[in-house]
Request: fold
Amino acid sequence: MNDVLAAVLEAIAVLCYVALNAFVLIWLERKIAGHIQRRVGPLRVGGPGGALQSLADGIKLFSKEDFRPGGRDSLVWWLAPLVSMTPAVMVFIAIPFGQHLIVHDMNIGLIFIASISSFGLLGVFMAGWGSNNKYSLLGAMRAGAQLFSYEIPAILSTIGVVLAAGSLSLETIVAKQSAHWFLFPQILGFIVFYIAVLAETNRTPFDLAEAESELVAGYFTEYSGIRWAMFPFAEYGSLFTGCALATTLFLGGWHGPLFLPGWIWFLIKTYILVFIAMWIRWTLPRVRIDQLMDLGWKFLIPLSLVNILGTGAYIALVR
Amino acid sequence: MATTTPGLQSQLMTLNLGPQHPSTHGVLRVVVTLDGEEVVEAQPDIGYLHRNFEKIVEAWALPGVIPFSDRNDYLAAIANEVCVCDAIETLGQVELPDRARWLRVLFAELQRIISHELWYGAFGMDLGAFTPFLYGFRDRESGYLLMEKATGARMLYGFNRVGGLRNDVTDAWLKELEAYLDFLDKEAWPEYMKLLIDNEIFVLRTKGTGVLTQEQAIAWGASGPVLRSTGLSWDLRKKRPYLVYDQLDFAVPTGTHGDNYDRAMVRMLEIKESIKIIRQVMKRLPDGPVLGKARASVRLPTADYYARQESPRGEVGVYLVGNGRPNAYRLKWRAPTFSHLQLVPLLCRGVKVADMIANLGSLDVVMGEVDR
Amino acid sequence: MSLPRTVWNTIKSVVIGHSVTAREIATRPITVFYPEEKPEFPTGSRSVPVLKVNEESGYINCTSCGLCERTCPPGCIDIEQAVDPATNKKKPWPHSYTLDLSHCMVCNLCIEACPFDALEMLDVPELATYQVQDLKFNKEQLLDLWKTGKAIRIAEGQPMPSN
Reply:
């Protein structure tokens, strides 16, 4: 009984954090976009800086008409937002925010995250198929090719870290970085991982699946109201988890030079990575689908293989 | 044709791009036949913005045609006005004061800058970069404020009259214009280049895509930056000088490959050249009236005339036939982007969807002008 | 293009591009908070032709000659001449003067055509209404509009009043 209660409480805590985090990130993105473009961004809701804008938007989206496209594949269409949101939330379970500040430390944490986050693709694909819209279908096809291709460099680039730490448990990996971060021995891996995270979260320059100027809104063209809101929710959730994972694997997790609590260090590093992702989004143009594939298969995967080889050779020769 | 794997059926998909779509620049509809991500056939469908311009103006007295012609290429209204004024003045033998001649050049070039700024933003948007759009619009807005201060309207000026201009400009306005040009030259233009045009992703996206050969460009009646990007230095301001362009010193930027990148570069360099032209005009602007005497009602002789000028998009032409009445017997409008839109099936056959959008953007189509 | 050069160009141009956006993030936004804070509307911008009240006589200058009605390209001006009911003779002022702003191009041609200095161009930009019929202004409304803003008459190619 106690186990069930604990699991429920954990789930509620994670959900609350994910929701809060998505609200903050959406607000942050709009603020950053505004200031980069010499605008001010949200301003009027919730005191200075419009901090509660996302909440107001959420209320609005909840109260909107539940529009359903004609000719949809009902079950698939209805399930798609849930399927794409669930993995984004589940990944939070395995991320160590601080020492012992983790929902569940698994000895296969990295594999858990890699396998769960691949599920996001399924939701995107279902949305594209179930909507009975050609733009959605094109977006889903693009997303399928893109997310599938970038899973591989993302996972390969983390193997260098696993080799260096000798563990798949994320807590152990962070603990191993107490002396020095894995960023510099693993700089290649970090770059590949970060680019792959950008691609997996569908962010410019890799936002082909929802390319506004080409596909209107890509796979979620036909969604509105709260169903639509689940997609950005999942997207910002996975952006955060991607950056959190980069922090865990390469930037020393909760370790920091000053006497601040570990989780503050963790969040600072993660939000810096998130900020850079947003900065990139509002600066660069979009790549084309074949260039995207070229970058993934012909550049990032070889690069991460080189990284694994170098790390392995170093470990074999030096130790 | 759709590629078939044994045991797997596949079929072509028809996609209606537009008329309500983020990147069709107005109300253009393109019927695209797709084989997966690849365009098999792209057929533009026009007419959603048809206003019956050519027939309506046959019933209107000629001075009224000028403000109506603004609505054709609404992003470069001055170019339309100047061209239709040229036709009326030449045919009706109306004297144009010297200052009006120079001011028309000034406004036409300022309009060219504003139009290319908008194109820069829209093209960035087509390629998925949102920020250049707002930078382009920011500077376009200051340009429009200048225009409003000078002409009284932001976009559709109604500024030219038969035999001159509606009103004069002041020295204070010319000073503001000077400041705007300085800002554009020193800050905005380098920023445009750094943010988008020099970006490697942009270069990879645009180089070698949407290639148009010189023969094709001539055969399809292309003009303006689209023609010049193929390497042909054809600019009506040089080849058929009108107003005072023969007294001005400027270069005609050309490309070499005729691809999207060259079209973009030609337009960016034209901004520079227009700044140069405006500076020269401001230095040499003569004093005097801007509006001649005989202007109240102009009657055209029974004759015809084809006036053509270099608008930001290419050769805009007015074929005007008179028959002794105060209105035109026939007025044919030659829209440069009408010819450019015909290139869409040619340029988009066999390219990716993303490149089709880029091709559409680099042709800089204005539907108000195409549909008339 | 060779791969190392592409990689180098990409890194260089991405860094340069980000330096541009970083500089812009630090500069002040150019947003004008429109309904609360009015932007500067330039004097002499054209919004609607209005009937002018003669300062000396206190009446409008319009003699109902119909020149503006004939000049107006889209035909949005409609004048009805006043008639003396007793003698059935026409009087030199308008019984009604209607201007349909929803058709008007704001081209200034009516003002240039008017030989009696009866029309002026208003510079009040906020004339939006919810109903298109509300944009049909009659004589009294045009006179009221004239009082709300600064109206000018440019017909001889003179410079704009102040800019």
